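During the no-cost extension, the postdoctoral fellow (Dr. R.K.) reprocessed legacy sequence entries with the updated structure-token encoder. One reprocessed record is reproduced below for audit purposes.
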Amino acid sequence: MKIEALRLKKVYGNTRALEDVSFSFSSSEIVGLIGPNGAGKTTTMRLMATLDEPTAGDVLFDGISVVEAPERIRSLVGYVPDTLPTHRDMTVRDYLDFFARAYGIRVPRRRTVIETVEEFTGLTELREKFLDALSKGMKQRVSLARSLLHDPEVLIMDEPAAALDPRARIELRELLRTLSAQGKA
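Re-encoded structure tokens follow.
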């Protein structure tokens, strides 16, 4: 899948968050946005994930526009925000089940999908733990698992390693390589 940003611009009030940003890559590549705080990295990812609309420009996923077809894009994209899940009264399994329902994944497939992403992200042993009892790194894994439930073709992660210790960063890198080998960026 080809992903293209075309002259993206985003203005919040009097603040220009993005101005004339363009790039392209394929979904089999691992791509990072690097820049100082306030450079527009998160804004760019939010536009790509259809969580915000560009003031001008567009993002295309194999020619499908985030502006014209946001629902279609949401089925193609998994988004891991830089904020961690805070649903205190939910277990890992409850959280993933809630989002699997939101994605429209029906029983009996839902249980299989949840178990698959739990295993892939190393959460199987933690499925009955409450989210507020997890470390930041484990919450990051839960967020990743949530983003994979609907089997997206593209994965967008904002600050994916920020809360991770060195070992967890290595594990995340391996997970991303596995996803990339499956054709997901």
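The longest strand covers residues 15-26. The chain has a mean pLDDT of 92. The remaining legacy entries will be reprocessed before the final report is submitted.
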